[in-house]
Amino acid sequence: MNIALGNDHAGYPLKSHVVQVLSSLGVQIMDHGSYDEHPVDFPDITRLVCDSVLSGKAKRGIMVCGTGVGACIAANKIPGIRAAVCHDVYSAAQCVEHDDVNVMCIGAQIIGPTLAATYIATFLQAEFSTEEQFRRRVAKLSEMEKSFYNPSSS
């Protein structure tokens, strides 16, 4: 499994641990930065992670910023991306199982290395449900994207 990883300067302190976790899980990492604590704009890094997911080069993406919120907002602006902030095990699993989330965002200032490891493993092991109700709802999300970005299709 290929995973696109990105972080901003606030997420950098947790990054090396996230890389270790991903490596221990046997995934290939596409590291989109940042590579130090110098300030960067999270939307730029988020875009790189999402582009890797949309192109199929990565199955899923993980963004690490201060709270996870900014990266999540940025990711959800991109058609085809479904991102979630995950700061508990339940949301790390259910966001994939029910909503087919393809980018997980975590906050380095919110959770530490041990919780990050648990949430990442949970996110990567989760599978989108085959139940019709969840498939129908995600299809409606896709339709919402299409009609928003192409108003004439409504």
Automatic annotation (TrEMBL):
<comment type="similarity">
    <text>Belongs to the LacAB/RpiB family.</text>
</comment>
<feature type="active site" description="Proton donor">
    <location>
        <position position="98"/>
    </location>
</feature>
<protein>
    <submittedName>
        <fullName>Ribose 5-phosphate isomerase B</fullName>
    </submittedName>
</protein>
<feature type="active site" description="Proton acceptor">
    <location>
        <position position="65"/>
    </location>
</feature>
<dbReference type="GO" id="GO:0005975">
    <property type="term" value="P:carbohydrate metabolic process"/>
</dbReference>
<dbReference type="Pfam" id="PF02502">
    <property type="entry name" value="LacAB_rpiB"/>
</dbReference>
<dbReference type="InterPro" id="IPR003500">
    <property type="entry name" value="RpiB_LacA_LacB"/>
</dbReference>
<keyword id="KW-0413">Isomerase</keyword>
<dbReference type="InterPro" id="IPR036569">
    <property type="entry name" value="RpiB_LacA_LacB_sf"/>
</dbReference>
<dbReference type="GO" id="GO:0016861">
    <property type="term" value="F:intramolecular oxidoreductase activity, interconverting aldoses and ketoses"/>
</dbReference>
<dbReference type="InterPro" id="IPR051812">
    <property type="entry name" value="SPI_LacAB/RpiB"/>
</dbReference>
